[in-house]
Structure formats: structure tokens, C-alpha cells
Model the fold of this input.
Amino acid sequence: MEKINVFALIGLVLLTLLTSRVSQSYEMHGTATVFVLLLAAFKFLIVAFQFMELKKAHKVWQWMLLGFISSFVFIVLMVLC
Done:
């Protein structure tokens, strides 16, 4: 396995542990939801660019994915807030 893939996997595991820790905190209810959503979007981008090899794809596909995840997070945040 490539060195970059190992780092990405370790990063994903650490982000998942951080997400579970934040979601268990009861003091930050509204802020925790936003933070968990942003962490999930960041993990989605790591998986898409690293493991689905979107980093080698055409720039249009990269920008479309970034636009999609940005608009998705924006819409969900607008509905929640």
C-alpha cells in the first residue's frame, strides 16, 4: 500500500474518532451538528480525491464535486439553522 494511502487511512480514522467524540458531547448541541457535518464533508473529499483517484481526473469533475459538496453542506446548514 502506498505511503499516502496509509496516511489518508490514519487521517480518516482520526477524523472518525473526533466525530464520535464531538457527537457524544451534550454541551455543544447546535455547534456539534455543524462540526460533525463539516467533518463528514471533509472525509468525503479525502475519500473522493485519494481513493477514487479524482485527483487524476479532469478539472471539471474536481470542481463539480467541490461545488456539489459545498452546496450540499450549505443547504443542510440553512435547513438546520
User: Anything to note?
Assistant: The two ends are 42 Å apart (CA to CA). Residues 3-80 form one domain. Residues 29-51 form the longest helix (23 residues).
